[in-house]
Design goal:
Rossmann fold, single chain, 3 domains, nine-stranded parallel β-sheet, six-stranded mixed β-sheet, alpha/beta, TIM Barrel
Length: about 525
């Protein structure tokens, strides 16, 4: 287990309200408490000292207490006068707090550093955290700022936090944490940077920060502590943990972390699966993969791949000397990527088997029964490529419908089938219709690529979207009396095949279905 502690920050306008949240955070498994007293409407009297002393007693000897009175310019809630903030820090030390968090820029002021140093000298249990925050993006010189922090007070814990505007902004923070030779806190704020809050545990950061709940986040990108400990298995993360993840844009809808982490936990594997929001196109994707492969110490061993990167990952594998499974090469899209410790690449496609098993098992037919059957496929992206390949292999008569006709034409040309514009769906006669677009996916749950009047009672409708399981398209199909095939079946089938590639072990598909159903209910 990593020595990195998960700190839960507490913010409220009154000491009484903060004390109540402290109780709740300790009950939720907080490994340390941060009192954000900059949120208090008043710092007058002994409010901070009393609150800090009470929290120190409640937390017990094993859970540190941090007191922070954040400067408004670096994310503080209220703009308290500097003199009041100095008194808050000194009072916290006097009350027995384990750490106080002071901004580096303020500590450089003599009127701040002198009383803080004097208070620390009288309290050997207390340590100083010297922090810097960049709210809009990465620091211009992260290492320089780190060195400046150490020089300002060598016994302090350097804390450098910045906003990641893209996942590729995260690597500087991870590099710094790995190089650090003393207790250090560094991670990235924002949705693009939240993975650093978990990776900090692998790299031995002193603290990482998680919120009490989503609505109580004190900084953008904080993960609720129940998710950190439950979904992302943070208690098991240590220096030997191997990571897997979903590369896509977006990734927030995915049940991948739910199923893979549940199966890792069931088999007691030191592995964790993360959603990796890689925004942009091939250039950004290639930069991300290059950065991961250059840092073997991160121990990323495999990725699921979703929209819009399935064809780009195939290209990346090829240009970097990777091994591409024959099926994936023929489909022209990859949904699974493996990395070895030397940076070697292997690319696969499990969408094919996942989709075909979902169709055949739901319709209770054999592969040969698809021969000559007319099928309408909506979409021409990575998922469509796998499904078209499977259907054409089985001898189905496939027509590809897409808004951009040139893409439908190109895909149809590769697999020897026909194509049409999306608005020609009105004339479709197929007995099986497959939606391979992301229309209807959470959160746009009322969207559908297929008008209701196209659907018929004698038709089977397969929607590859699985979040939600009951999409608008499937609701309309059910109302018409059509046979419905939801995306959950395909998702579980392909995830099972991915898990086998990731680990060499068989996943418990019953567990996968159970946790997906539970996750979708709570979505």
């Amino acid at each position: 287990m990593s020595d990195t502690r998960i700190v839960v920050p507490i913010m409220a306008p009154t000491p009484k309200a903060m004390a109540a949240l402290v109780e709740k955070a300790l009950g939720a498994g907080a490994e340390a408490i941060e009192l954000r007293v900059d949120a208090l409407t008043s710092l007058a009297g002994r409010a901070v000292e009393t609150l800090a002393a009470q929290t120190r007693q409640k937390a017990g000897p094993s859970r540190p207490v941090v007191v922070t009175c954040r400067d408004h310019r670096e994310g503080g809630v209220l703009d308290h006068p500097l003199a009041a903030r100095i008194e808050a820090w000194v009072s916290a030390i006097r009350a027995g707090s384990d750490y106080i968090d002071v901004e580096l820029e303020n500590f450089r002021l003599v009127q701040v550093s002198r009383p803080v140093r004097e208070a620390l000298a009288q309290a050997p249990q207390a340590r100083l955290i010297l922090s810097s925050h960049s709210m809009t993006g990465p620091f211009a010189g992260l290492q320089w700022r780190y060195d400046q922090t150490v020089a300002a007070y060598p016994a302090a814990v350097p804390k450098l936090i910045y906003t990641a505007n893209h996942i590729n902004d995260c690597f500087d923070a991870l590099d710094l944490l790995r190089r650090a030779r003393q207790d250090t806190i560094t991670f990235c704020m924002g949705p693009a940077g939240w993975i650093t809050r978990l990776l900090a545990k692998k790299l031995g950061g002193l603290f990482t920060y998680g919120s009490l709940e989503s609505a109580a986040a004190t900084a953008p990108g904080q993960i609720p502590i129940d998710q950190m400990k439950g979904l992302y298995r943070s208690d098991a993360i240590d220096g030997d943990t191997e990571f897997f993840g979903l590369i896509g844009d977006p990734v927030g809808h995915s049940m991948g972390p739910v199923v893979h982490n549940a199966c890792f936990g069931q088999l007691n594997m030191n592995r964790v699966y993360l959603p990796l929001w890689v925004a942009g196109g091939p250039e950004e994707l290639f930069a991300f993969l290059d950065a991961v492969r250059a840092r073997a110490w991160l121990d990323f061993r495999g990725f699921s791949v979703t929209l819009p990167h399935k064809t780009s990952v195939l290209e990346y594998a090829r240009v970097n000397g990777g091994t591409v499974e024959g099926l994936a090469a023929r489909i022209g899209a990859v949904n699974t990527l493996l990395l070895d410790r030397q940076g070697g690449i292997k690319a696969f496609n499990t969408d094919y088997v996942g989709a075909m098993e979902a169709i055949l098992s739901t319709l209770k037919i054999g592969r040969g029964d698809l021969k000559g059957r007319p099928v309408a496929v909506v979409g021409a992206g990575g998922v469509a490529r796998a499904i078209v390949a499977g259907l054409c292999d089985a001898g189905a008569r496939v027509t590809i419908y897409n808004r951009t006709v040139s893409k439908a034409r190109a895909l149809a040309g590769e697999f020897g089938c026909t194509h049409a514009a999306l608005d020609e769906l009105a004339n479709v006669k197929a007995g099986l219709l497959v939606n391979c677009t992301n229309m209807g996916m959470h959160p746009e749950v009322d969207a559908t690529p297929v008008p209701a009047e196209v659907l018929r009672p004698d038709m089977a409708v397969f929607d590859t979207v699985y979040n939600p399981a009951q999409t608008q398209l499937l609701r309309l199909a059910a109302q018409k009396g059509a046979t419905c095939i939801d995306g959950v079946a395909m998702f579980v089938n392909q995830a099972r095949a991915q898990f086998r590639l990731f680990t060499g072990e068989e996943a418990d598909t019953a567990l996968m279905r159970q946790v997906v159903a539970r996750g979708l209910e709570g979505a």
